[in-house]
Amino acid sequence: MRRVCFQLKVRPDRIDEYKRRHAAVWPEMLEALYAAGWHNYSLFLRPDGLLIGYLETDSVEADELKDVQARMAATDVNRRWQAEMAELFEDLDGAPDEGFLELEEIFNLEDQLAASRHAAQTAQTTAYETRTHEESN
């Protein structure tokens, strides 16, 4: 699984409209997103229009985001949705789902906790095996 976080800027005078449209996303758009590999997808909006999006894809490949974007771009519902949404954004080059700035993930609790627990378990196992070997000699 790959986690993706991105940012866009909603025009401050269009924030209410942006919220309204996302309160009732078209069912066919929801299905298309899911089918294209956009999972656990969320949007967060500051009062000044800064929009942060988060999604997970089924792959860990770096180019997976491009793949899920391409799958969506191939759908008619996405073309219609992006055309309607584009007017709500500032400084956008292209469609909203292609013009966002991807953010670098620098920390994930579950990943680091799993690594830490694995290291601790490995150290315990090694210590036990060393003691057992010394006692048998």
From TrEMBL:
Residues 118-137 are annotated as: Disordered. Gene3D superfamilies: 3.30.70.100. One of its GO terms (biological process) is rhamnose catabolic process. Residues 118-129 have a biased composition (Low complexity). GO terms for molecular function: racemase and epimerase activity, acting on carbohydrates and derivatives. It comes from the Bacteria. This is L-rhamnose mutarotase.
